[in-house]
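From the pipeline queue, job 12 of 40. The input is one protein chain; the requested action is below.

Action: predict structure.
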Amino acid sequence: MKMVYDMTKRLTMTQKSRWLSYLIKRDGNCCFYCEQRFLKSDQRWQRVFDHLNNKVEDNRPENLVLSHWRCNEQKKNDTDMQIRAYEKLENNEHLAESLGVEERKNLTNTETNMEIDTNTEFSKAAEEYLIEHLFPHNGKPALETILDYKETLDSITLRCYRKNNHASQNTIRRILDMLCSLEGNFEIVKSEGRRKIRLRKEN
């Protein structure tokens, strides 16, 4: 039985986080094409996710390898690299088909748990930011009475990125909307033509 993955969108930050440890375990923490280590200080040698069949919507882990940015670009015009990529894809697919039921279950559980952990971290960071700025502390008034929605979204995204090395504005936007729902302590209002966040008045 084959596992089903979302093949309708480009690879998201959540998916990258979801598959990174699996790809490192399967292939090692180096570029698939040149087999050299990654360097954060130079864009050419930074780590990127390469789609073996060049279809950016095919986000199965079988179709993904880690590569240098430079090697990823070079592959577009290098026939030998493209052949190697398709051979790797075939091997990955055979490996996936050979997984037992329990191994497939563990892989799915790992994927789900990583996504839950990421959402939990983002939710915690968003709520902490709002409480830090809009709640009074130790008898002192709140730092702000109202926050600009876009600036708040950008600031929380940056905090998450610094802490987790990845962040998704779409996910954080959904979390902010949740925290500002009727059940939440905060609300979204329009002021000066912009969306703002403030402490819910009944609080």
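Job complete. The chain has six helices and five strands.
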